TrEMBL record:
Its cofactor is Zn(2+). Residues 102-174 form the PDZ domain. One of its GO terms (molecular function) is metallopeptidase activity. InterPro entries: PDZ, PDZ_6, PDZ_sf, Pept_M50_Zn, Peptidase_M50. Its EC number is 3.4.24.-. This is Zinc metalloprotease. It holds the Pfam family Peptidase_M50.
């Protein structure tokens, strides 16, 4: 049952993404021929006024097929007949919808669960923080030169520091103060710590929840780009990679631990899906946007055969990558 909830949550992200493309296509007067959730053989579907809506067998994505998307069509409602800016708006709408969906989910989570701020609420007696001079009410602004936006920012950066001295900047009564603090290993926590706790906002207002949703999204965008940097620089480990199997398993585990954890994981995936689709890689939304920006700057349309070849190569590489990570998921599964 939890796996089913996981599939439904992941499907919500795909529907939201494709609905973004669909909506902007309609607003730009483009004919949408197909709206599909999933890939492979069709399971069920129905024909609307001009669009066929389908659910397919493999829950690994989806697509919106527009008239004139793959070649030039002499029709004012064709995707190919629209200006580069209009086409960019249609393609960018998918990833943008993923970010909007994440913001909505984080707002709901914050309103229900509250959130913590990068502001010190308590300082443990005889801790490195107390010895350094930190007090309750200090707001953490940076750690080792990196800006701190959330308590998770601080917690993650501090735990990755392996007990080395922390260069901390805090704001106190409008004044920035700097401290160098060396963490001590805490037997109870099983990690290095400096002995501080965050300030919790238990019942935030709607406005505070919206504001915090932007902070959460910004934090996850930063973390995702950090992960991509690790991958592209060859520093990633085998268990840093996961495909559809890992995603469904992880979503199922999140569902098992409660609806709010499932929604948080869905919001995290939505941010990552938005970023992944904006990468300037052929067959992804980012690849299309890159091509259209070239057309916008040069005011010359790129040959359809060149675009078709690039997208074919890009799509083939994505399928190969998906097969590879799926095999990895089966042979070397990540434990949860």
């Amino acid at each position: 049952m939890y796996i089913i909830w996981g599939i439904l949550a992941f499907s919500l992200l795909i529907v939201g993404h494709e609905f973004g493309h669909f909506t902007l296509a309609k607003l730009n007067g483009i004919k949408v021929e197909e709206f599909s959730l999933g890939m492979g053989p069709k399971i069920l579907g129905f024909k609307g006024k001009e669009t066929e809506y389908m659910i397919k067998a493999l829950p690994i994505g989806g697509y919106v097929k527009m008239l004139g998307e793959e070649d030039n069509v002499d029709d004012e409602r064709a995707f190919s007949s629209k200006s580069p800016l209009r086409r960019i708006s249609v393609i960018a709408a998918g990833p943008i919808m993923n970010f909007i969906l994440a913001l909505l989910l984080f707002t709901l989570i914050s309103m229900n669960n509250g959130f913590v701020l990068p502001k010190i609420n308590q300082v443990s007696p005889n801790s490195p923080a107390m010895e350094a001079g930190l007090i309750s009410g200090d707001e953490i602004k940076s750690l080792n030169g990196n800006k701190i936006l959330t308590w998770e920012d601080f917690s993650m950066a501090a735990s990755n520091n392996n007990g080395n001295p922390l260069n901390l900047e805090v704001e106190r009564a409008g004044e920035i103060k700097s401290y160098t603090i060396t963490p001590r290993f805490n037997e109870e926590l099983g990690k290095y710590a400096i002995g501080i706790g965050p300030t919790a906002v238990e019942k935030p207002s709607f406005g505070e929840s919206i504001k915090h949703s932007f902070v959460e999204c910004r934090f996850l965008i930063k973390q995702t780009f950090g992960a991509l940097k690790t991958i592209f620089t060859g520093k990633a480990k085998l268990n840093d990679f996961g495909g559809p199997v890992t995603i469904i398993k992880a979503t199922g585990v999140a569902a098992k631990s409660g609806i709010w954890n499932l929604l948080f994981f869905a919001a995290l995936l939505s941010v990552q899906l938005g970023i992944f689709n904006l990468l300037p890689f052929p067959a992804l939304d980012g690849g299309w946007i890159f091509i259209m920006f070239i057309e916008l700057i040069t005011r010359k349309k790129i040959n359809d055969k060149i675009i078709g070849t690039l997208n074919y190569i890009g799509f083939s590489l994505l399928i190969i990558m998906m097969i590879a990570v799926t095999i990895k998921d089966i042979l070397f599964p990540i434990s949860f």
